[in-house]
Amino acid sequence: MLQRIWAVLQKEFIQTLRDRGTLLLMLSMPILQLFLLGYAVDMNVEHIPTVVADQSLDDYSLGYVNALVNTQYFDVVAYVASEAEVIRAIDGGRAQAGVVIPPDFAARVERGEAQVLLLIDGSDLFTVQSGYTRAATIAQAYASEVLLKKIRRSGLPVTGALPLDTRVRVLYNPDMQQLWFTIPNMIALLMQTTSIAMTAAAVVREREAGTIEQLLVTPIRPAELLLGKIIPNVVVALINVLTAVAVGVWVFHVPFRGSLGLFVGLAVIYVFSGLGLGLLISTIANNQKQAQQLVMMIMLLGVILGGYIFPRNTMPPVLRVLGTLFPMTFFIPISRGIISKGVGVDALWAQIAGMTVYAVVVMAIASKAFRQGLE
Predict the structure, then answer these.
(1) Which residues pair with 101 in a beta bridge?
(2) Chain mean position to CA 103
(3) Do 136 and 102 lie in a common domain?
(4) Cα angle at 13 between 270 and 299, to 5 degrees?
(5) Over the stretch 70-122, which tens digit does the pLDDT of each residue have?
(6) Is residue 186 part of a domain?
(7) Is 159 left (phi over 0), alpha (psi -120 to 50) or beta?
(8) Are 263 and 147 members of one domain?
(9) Alpha helices in 285-344, H assignment, sequence order
């Protein structure tokens, strides 16, 4: 078995190295796209999932939280006890913003020295840009309202001092560097593009050339043929992963805060999910033109529904469900979490489990369709 697989591997590597133009294109495409797609689309986000740590629980603190919610830019998804729990919720992806209200908040408001801490997920460009500006505006409006109420109660003349000051701290990307937001997303996009396109093109090319029929008359089995064709693509895809990470870190100076080993290990699962999707496309397409069209359609839908451009939490439930049909949906939070936040498996287990199940299912379906196509 290993000898037959090795024979196919040698054939695939020789064919890949012989076609130097295609190999150069596959290896240079991530670098080219990183430079061309270095800037993302700016847009406002509503209904940002927010965790609140209200340590005061008085009328003023409740009024402040209600002021945030009433604007429809922030949705409170949970109440926790401390700032550390707020950060854990943001790390785990359960929230994209957090509000920390200190004890004796009401007394501080009365003295005109109250402060509220708003934590924002700095790995998400759209959340930061919308949350940062909206929170400051809401805080100023609420502080003005509190001041007017005090004036009406006391009959004192109007002063310029506001009784509430909201301090905003952006986690993970305090300077809001544009490329720090986009590089983790772009790595996920490039990996999916190369893995799907390579497998779909390779299998369809063999079918058009009639070489698959020649291979089938040899003792090799369909599963062994499949492994022999996939493994070279895995090697090329992982080279592209390391190239994209290196360009992001050394050229664009994006900090890599997490474990490189964990990232590469999860990237292997992600690549297999893309290869399975590409193999499934190759069983549907009759020629390379059809395969290219299907790949482009899959990539467009993946970009839109997977969270690369548009935040998934703003999408209707039906579109969020459809987004799970694309592996990018699972890997973008993983890429953001490891590169930008430096979190591990404990914070990303849901995305890892979903991506693993996806990879197994799509590879099983594609393998069965591939064997049926050969038979």
Answers:
(1) 54
(2) 36
(3) yes
(4) 35
(5) 878 888 999 998 999 999 998 888 888 898 998 888 888 777 777 888 888 87
(6) yes
(7) beta
(8) no
(9) 288-305, 317-323, 328-335
In the β-sheet with 97-101, what is the strand arrangement from edge to edge?
A: 74-79, 48-54, 97-101, 114-121, 164-171
Report phi then psi at 52, rounded to 5: -115, 130
Residue 258 identity (one-letter amino acid): G
Do 335 and 277 lie in a common domain? Answer: yes
Whether 194 and 328 map to the same domain: the answer is yes
Smallest CA-to-CA distance from 313 within 305, 278, 98, 227 is with: 305
Does some domain include residue 2? no
Rounded to 5 degrees, φ, ψ at 70 are: -65, -20
Q: How many residues does the chain have?
A: 375
Provide the β-strand partners of residue 116: 166
- What is the domain count for the chain? 2
What value, to the nearest 5°, has the Cα angle with vertex 155 and ends 149 and 159? 70
Domain range spanning residue 106? 48-171
DSSP 336: I
- Whether 94 and 237 map to the same domain: the answer is no
CATH of the domain at 84: 3.40.1710.10
89 & 182 share domain? no
The token pair that represents 160 in the structure block: 């310029």
Report the predicted TM-score, pTM, of the whole model to 2 decimal places: 0.69
Q: What is the dihedral of CA 278, 31, 125, 123, to 10 degrees?
A: 80
Tell me the per-residue pLDDT of 306-356, one tens digit each, with 9 for 90 and over.
888 777 877 788 888 888 888 999 999 999 999 989 999 999 999 999 999
